[in-house]
From TrEMBL:
Subunit structure: Monomer.
Top-level taxonomic group: Bacteria
Keyword Calcium: yes
Domain Glycosyl hydrolase family: 295-759
Keyword list, A-Z: Calcium, Hydrolase, Signal
Any GO CC annotation of this UniProt entry: cytosol
Organism field: Chitinophaga parva
InterPro entries: 6-hairpin_glycosidase_sf (IPR008928), GH-type_carb-bd (IPR014718), GH92_a_mannosidase_put (IPR005887), GH92_N (IPR041371), Glyco_hydro_92 (IPR012939), PNGase (IPR050883)
Annotated ranges, domain Glycosyl hydrolase family 92 N-terminal: 28-288
Signal peptide residues on this chain, from the entry's feature table: 1-18
Protein name as it appears in the record: Sugar hydrolase
Length: 763
């Protein structure tokens, strides 16, 4: 089975077309990459930045068991785990690559035979409506997913538009075929997550409704419109809600059978058909953040007909357009699969959050209309400020500017008057540390991508950074660090605030607001306040100014850090590498520290309490599977050893990325891991977003052409590139020697050619 699946996903014959001019890039996208182990990606159908992510869910693991967190739920952040043997159904909303979860709305499952309205169990799928499946019958492409549900002999096919999931189910002959609509199911689910659910059967082909949940987003309402290609002959529902204290006089009706007005917290509905052998029943399922009417308008606008293949072709054409923004030259099929799947994963999130008429529900629970921009949600900013948003400023500047405007709308609608931290569906779930929206705003402003009021953006950043009652900001402002007694991740949060403050300073400098620049440059040096010179590492500091006595250099949990130990976080000063090197004792000692990070052994006990990291995501003590170290390999450039940057980057690319289901060394985190791969493969990386510089590394392809939105092209030319020739002998920019270890954003945007001459020996 594994061999069959491997051949299916790798598509080796594509290598014969590798250098053909104008070849299609969509076949290189393998959505199955990252679906095994800790990648937390999903294999289903979505278009670029689409509101709908229609994908299979392979189990119904609850968030809570016996009053405690159920650790097994973590594997299902994206709803799908490659090693599972059954599929529960196909739901319409999923996060890509996250380390926490929500969503999984509106699960649909086709069945035949006696009606079963419970999902059953993985070890006994016949006890419910789930079905066994095989990877041998599974096809995962950009905006297309197909699988055979073996227990019912039904072939399921999925595609999507921005706001509509399109299902096509090929049935056997059956008098008792069913489409189950499960409104209880969800990701990171628990009994009280569903606040209320409504289903209205408008006629024998149209159903509308909504679902309100209290999960990671605590006030989230999603509306839907569902239409069938064939009238159903009967329908019904079951309400699994706990007995309510008051439920009115609805008992006058038979609410289980053919009753069109369903409501409750725990509902499952079914729609019944008679089918001929090979008959296809199609479903179009539209979402809206505003209303049932909005969902129906989205459905009729985006999918007016019933041609499944046409919708699939249009969706894949959208992907082809986005993928062609970078074309690479490589003789390796695997390299192309890695690269274009990384592009695919980078262009899933953030997601469009508005109806086709521009309306959306804001944080204030009011209806707004996006004026002159596309409104987005799903901002995993602790991850994505590092490389994903800088990548958008380069390749998707219009979208990134719209994302900034979406963040400013979030700020305006927030009663707290803060920019987003980790937001989705008109909520902030406040996950992770720092206030990294300011880095995204700063990166856009510094790079001149500002079709918005840049001074208003700076004011919003300043207000967010001075919100004293949010995660130690008051302490940070007053004392220059967060006291260990008051915050469990005091050191990493202090370091992140210092970087964010530097980003604000760069934005202020660009806008000529020198008073703000001076204030925030001073704040940006607060990283020095958690440096313990006696041991040479960042360390938790107490309110009285002393450093905490009990401290483990290799441990993460309980040591003042989040998703990284002090070995890694002591290098988290991306805005001042020169100052960090001096503080650590100079270039020689600093380089020794970096060398040791990559070559030492980190015993299992030091990451076993961190659920999202396994040995697969670690090189020595360098944890690539979590983001705080993503800039680290490039720091050799500041220490005078660029060849070590080049060597390490090529090693990380080989070890952490592969065109297999388990091919990601950690959570893709809404595209951050993929953006790191794209930049590093091209040969440069944004070490400090908010700067206009990209640090040079070692390109891993034979060349690339970046087609920029301003009409220019930027070419990466690589001479003598190979797995052995990882060292850069010299660099030319437009034919002239480049005597520095960075390239600027403006140099790229002007178009031209950067030439890397590679060698097997370092300088």
């Amino acid at each position: 089975m594994r061999k069959t699946a491997f051949l299916l996903y790798c598509c080796l014959p594509l290598g014969l077309m590798a250098q053909q001019k104008g070849e299609s890039l969509v076949p290189y996208v393998k959505p199955i990459i990252g679906t095994q182990k800790m990648g937390h990606t999903f294999p289903g159908a979505t278009v670029p930045f689409g509101s709908v992510q229609l994908s299979p869910d392979t189990d119904t693991i609850p968030y809570e068991m016996n009053g405690h967190y159920n650790g097994d739920v973590y594997k299902y952040c994206a709803g799908y785990q490659y090693d599972d043997k059954t599929i529960v159904g196909f739901s319409h909303t999923h996060f890509s690559g996250t380390g926490h979860s929500d969503l999984g709305d509106f699960l649909i499952m086709p069945t035949t035979g006696a009606l079963q309205l419970n999902p059953g169990t993985a070890d006994n799928p016949a006890s419910g409506f789930r079905s066994a499946y095989s990877h041998a019958s599974e096809v995962a492409e950009a905006d297309y997913y197909k699988v055979k549900l073996d227990d019912n002999n039904i072939t399921a096919e999925l595609t999507a538009t921005t706001r509509v999931g399109f299902h096509q189910y090929t049935f056997p002959k059956a008098d008792d075929a069913h489409i189950i609509l499960d409104l209880m199911s969800g990701i990171y689910n628990y009994p009280d997550k569903n606040v209320w659910t409504v289903v209205r059967v408008v006629n024998d082909t149209l159903v509308t409704g909504y679902r309100q949940t209290n999960g990671w987003a605590r006030t989230r309402t999603v509306y839907f419109a569902m239409t069938f290609s064939k009238p159903f002959k009967s329908y019904g529902s079951a309400n699994y809600s706990k007995r309510e204290v008051y439920h009115g006089f609805w008992g006058k009706f038979d609410q289980r059978n053919n009753f069109p007005d369903m409501a409750g917290t725990q509902l499952r509905a079914h729609f019944d058909f008679a089918t001929n052998d090979g008959e296809k029943i199609k479903i179009k399922f539209a979402l809206s953040p505003v209303s049932q009417e909005g969902a129906l308008n989205n459905l009729r606008t985006e999918t007016p007909g019933w041609d499944f293949d046409q919708v699939k072709a249009e969706g894949q054409a959208l992907w082809e357009k986005e993928l062609r923004k970078i074309t690479i030259a490589s003789n390796s099929v695997e390299e192309k699969q890695n690269f274009y799947t990384a592009m695919y994963h980078a262009f899933i999130n953030p997601t469009v959050y508005m109806d086709v008429d521009g309306r959306y529900k804001g944080l204030d629970q009011e209806i707004h209309k996006a004026d002159g921009f596309t409104n987005y949600t799903t901002f995993s900013l602790w991850d994505t400020y590092r490389a994903l948003h800088p990548f958008f400023n380069l390749i998707q500047p219009k979208r990134n500017a719209d994302m900034v405007q979406s963040m400013l709308a979030h700020y305006d609608q927030s009663v707290l008057h803060m920019l987003p931290v980790w937001s989705h569906y008109a909520n902030d779930n406040w996950c992770m540390s720092g206030y990294h929206a300011v880095a995204v705003l700063a990166d856009a402003v510094v790079k001149g991508n500002t079709p918005f009021d840049a001074n208003r953006a700076l004011d919003a950043a300043i207000a967010t950074s001075n919100h004293r009652n949010y995660e130690g900001i008051g302490d940070y402002i007053d004392h220059g660090y967060i006291a260990a007694e008051r915050n469990g991740v005091s050191v990493s949060t202090t370091l992140e605030y210092a970087y964010d403050d530097w980003a604000i300073a760069q934005m202020a400098k660009k806008l000529g607001r020198n008073d703000v620049y001076e204030t925030y440059m001073k704040r940006s040096r607060n990283y020095k306040n958690v440096w313990d010179a006696s041991i040479g590492y960042m360390r938790p500091r107490m309110a009285d100014g002393s450093f905490r006595k009990d401290f483990d250099l290799l441990k993460t949990d309980g040591q003042g850090f989040i998703e990284g130990n002090t070995w890694n976080f002591s290098l988290y000063v991306p805005h001042d590498p020169a100052g960090l090197i001096e503080m650590m004792g100079g270039k020689k000692r600093f380089t020794q520290h970096l060398d040791s990070l990559f070559t030492m052994h980190l015993p299992d006990k030091f990451f076993e309490e961190t659920e999202d990291i396994t040995r697969d995501g670690i090189i020595g003590n360098y944890v690539h599977g979590n983001e705080p170290s993503h800039h680290v390999a490039y720091l050799y450039n500041w220490a005078g050893y660029p060849w070590k940057t080049q060597e390490r980057i090529r090693m990380i690319l080989k070890k952490m990325y592969a065109p297999r289901p388990d091919g990601l060394g950690g959570n893709d985190d809404c595209g951050q891991m993929s953006a790191w791969y794209i930049f590093s493969t091209l040969g440069f990386y944004p070490v400090a977003p908010g700067s206009d510089q990209y640090s040079l590394g070692s390109p891993a392809v034979d060349g690339a052409v970046l087609t920029l939105e301003n009409g220019n092209t930027f070419t990466v030319e690589v001479k003598n590139q190979s797995d052995k020739n990882v060292y850069v002998q010299k660099v030319l920019l437009n034919g002239k020697p480049l005597d520095r270890l960075y390239i600027t954003h403006e140099e790229i945007m002007q178009g031209g050619t950067i030439t890397f001459v590679m060698s097997s020996k370092h300088a």
